[in-house]
Structures are given as C-alpha cells and as structure tokens.
Amino acid sequence: MATEAHSDEGGLVFHPMDQFIVKPLFGDGPVGMFTITNVTLWMALSVIAIIALMVMGTSGRSTIPGRVQSIGELAYGFIYKMVEDVAGKDAVGFFPYIMTLFMFIVFANFLGLLPAAFTTTSHIAVTAVLALLVFVTVTVVGFVKHGMGFLGLFWVSSAPLPLRPVLALIEVISYFVRPVSHSIRLMGNMMAGHAVMKVFAAFAPMILLSTGLGLLVTPLSVIAIAAIYGLEILVAFIQAYVFTILTCVYLKDALHPAH
Amino acid sequence: MASETHNAADAAASAPGMPQLDFSTFGNQIFWLMVTLVVIYFVLSRIALPRIAAVLAERQGTITNDLAAAEDLKVKATEAEEAYNKALADARAEAQTIIAQAKAEIQADLDDATAKADAEIAAKLVESEKKIAEIREGAMQSVKDVAKDTAKEIVAAMGGKADARTVTAAVNARMKG
After folding, report:
1. How close does chain B come to A256, measured CA to CA in Å?
2. Of B20, B43, B45, the CB nearest to A191
3. Mean predicted confidence (pLDDT) in A212-221
4. pLDDT digits 0-9 by tens, B77-127
5. For residue B159, what are the contacts with CB-CB under 8 A and spacing of at least 6?
C-alpha cells in the first residue's frame, strides 16, 4: 500500500524496509494481539516445515535412513553434540529446548529467504523474546542449582583481590548485556541482508529508465543480488548456529559457574 | 475506505523508520512466537526427538550386533579350517598306514611264493638228479653190455674163445680206468 503511495513519482522506488511491515493477512484492520498476520503465516510455515522434516521425515524409523530422515538425524546429532560438548553432559536435559530454538531460527531464516517471504527473525520483538527466554532460563537454572553460589560467576577468584570488585562490575554488566547482543545480533543480521538485497533489487530496473546507465547498473545489481543471496544463505545458517551455541555457552555458565 | 487511508498513512509514516520499532505489532508477534515455540517444543520433545533417539540407538545396536556376529562367524570359520586341516592330516596318516600295511602284506605273499617256488625247484632238482643218475647208470650198464658183447665178438672174430668172466673183468677194469 505504501509502495503505491510513493511510486507515482516515477524513477526508482526505494522501500527496503517495507518487507518487514507486519500486516494482517485478511483485510486491513489494525494489528491486534491475536490478529492473524503475516507473522502468523510464516511462523506457521516454519512449524509445518519442522514437522515435515522431523516427524514425517522420520516416520519410517528406518535403520538405513532415507534422504529426509538423514537430514533430521543430522540436525539431531549436530545440536545434541553441541549441547553435550559446550554445555556439558548434565545439560542434555535442556536439549529439546535448545533444539526448539535452533529449529525455529534456522527454518525462519531460510523461509525468510524465499522471494516475497516475511522474515520473522528480522524483528527485534521476536529475537528479544528468544534471547530473554534464554536469559531467564539460564538465570533461574543458575540460582536453582547453586543458590547464592551462582553469584560466584561474577567474582573472578583467579584475579588479584583488589581487581575483583572492578571485574565483578564488568561481569555483571556483561551478563545483562548478553540478551541484548544475543537478540540484536540475530535480528540485525537478518534485517541487514534482506534490506541490502531490496536496495539492489530497486536498482535493477534502471535499464527501463535510462538505457546508458542501465546497461551498467542493471547487470551489476542482478549479480549483486545473487551474491548477497548466497551470502544470506550462509548467514541464515550461521546466525542460527551462533544463537544456539551462545545459548549452550550461557547454559554452561549456569550449570558450572566457577571460572 | 477510511481505514485504508489511515493504514496507508500509518505505513507511510513508519516507512522511513524501521517497522521493527513499531511497538503496536509487538504484542501480536510475541503472542504468535510463543504459540509457535510451544508447538515446536511439544512436537519435538514428544514425537520427533524420542523417535530419532530410538532410531539412532537401534542403529547402534544393530551395528554392534552385526560386528559381534561377524566376529563369531570369523571364529567359526577359523575353527572349521582347523578341523579341515586336522581331518586332512588324519586322512593322510591313515593312507600312509594302509599303504605300509599293503606293502607288508604283498612282501609277505611274495616271500611265501618265493619260498614255495624255491622248495619246488629244489625238489624237482633232486628228482632230476636222481633221474639223471638212473639214466647215467642205465647208460653205463648199456655201455658195459655193449662193450662186453663187442669184446666177445671181437675175441670170437680173432678166433679165440672168449671167457665171459675174463671179458667182463677186463671191461670193468677199462671202464673204471
């Protein structure tokens, strides 16, 4: 809608952020809490994709796996090993939780790469909730497992005594900054890539406006879109991986707070 | 119509900024995110993850079993080979015994036959010698008789009267000679 409002000026249309607008799927009403929006649609699609891979793909329970089951097992083994290696053997109880986070982020990221898709993980509201869930879980687990001993995480006993209060202050700040960086890293990466692609996409129809300049700009933008898209595929996986492994690292702090 | 223009204006207002910071959509996003996460969590923890874990465990079990079975079969094969080698050696030894026995039997038979033949030959020899002696005796006698007769005839031809006893004695003396 906004696109039409601006495009009648002629020339190139730059609305790289319009793809992130949350809008109702049916009708044009205001976005209430329970409105079915494009957020609902793309989250539902990621749920369906996860069910297709992890439930339908493994329904054969074959000892010699097929292609889909192999991928499901690969994802399982990848995250299970990560939890075990990074957070420790006693963190295996958190494996379904971490698997949920990983599967949701990885599928939201990849589905967001489809043309005309809405990327749910490019919104701070979503990533902040994911990061806060991790932050609250880790903090609660830390206090439940170790009581006040969890505060030893901030008291660097290997440092010289006069330095310790300073370090404790820094540690406390860094602890509370964690959910911020955790969420903004994911959201920023997803948003930036998609916005850059959209900017290049806006340059692509240059040939329609001016043949001379268009001969140079249009092929360059198309190549750039392809290149950025390749990079975004990498980023989609890496950001899911980074989010998950950081969750494991934070969980390790909660389970083994000693430095 | 009114709502549409309002919405367009709204979107236009937020377009230069970030839709991410439009707080009016936060409740909606957070609500649907929680629904999504809960659904994924239950699907994974109730169905998918236990199933995959079971499949992986079963595969590990199958592999372990197969390896054990292979080890078993290998031991069995070694045992069979040993048994075969032993049977072969036994058969060889038995064959050697049978050959030796047969050789000994043949030798004994041969010795027997040789001895019998020797005895027969010896008996025949004795008999032949006896016969030859007889023949010789007969021949001697004939020669003596012929000599006596001849001598008598010669003596008679010479005009003498041959005394039989004298002639015999002379012939005998000559024959001995």
Report:
1. 25
2. B20
3. 87
4. 999 999 999 999 999 999 999 999 999 999 999 999 999 999 999 999 999
5. none
Which residue of chain B has the CA closest to A3?
Answer: B12
Residues of B in contact with A26 (CB under 8 A): none
DSSP-derived 3-state class of residue B83: helix
- Chain B, window 49-68: residues with a beta carbon less than 8 angstroms from a chain A beta carbon: 49, 51-56, 58-59, 62
- On the question of pLDDT at A103 being above 70, the answer is yes
Structure tokens at B160: 């003498």
Q: What pLDDT, on the 0 to 100 scale, is given for residue A7?
A: 41
Which of B7, B40, B62 to substitute to test the interface with A, most A CBs within 10 Å?
B40
* Sequence spans of domains, chain B: 24-176
Domain count, chain A: 1
Which CB contacts under 8 angstroms, 24+ apart, belong to A154-159?
A: A156/A259, A157/A259, A158/A259
Answer whether residue B2 shows pLDDT above 50. no
Q: Domain limits at A218? A: 2-255
Burial B2-38 (b: 16+ CB within 10 A, else e): eeeeebeebbeebbeeebbebeebbebbbbbbeebbe
B32 touches chain A (CB under 8 A): yes
Residues in CB range of B23: below 8 A, 6 or more apart: none
pLDDT single digits (tens) A49-59: 999 999 998 88
Which tens digit of pLDDT belongs to each residue from A127-159? 999 999 999 999 999 999 988 888 888 888 888
Task: Look at B52 and A76 and tell me if their CB atoms are within 8 Å.
Answer: yes
Please state, in angstroms and rounded to a whole number, the distance separating the CA atoms of residues A139 and B141: 154
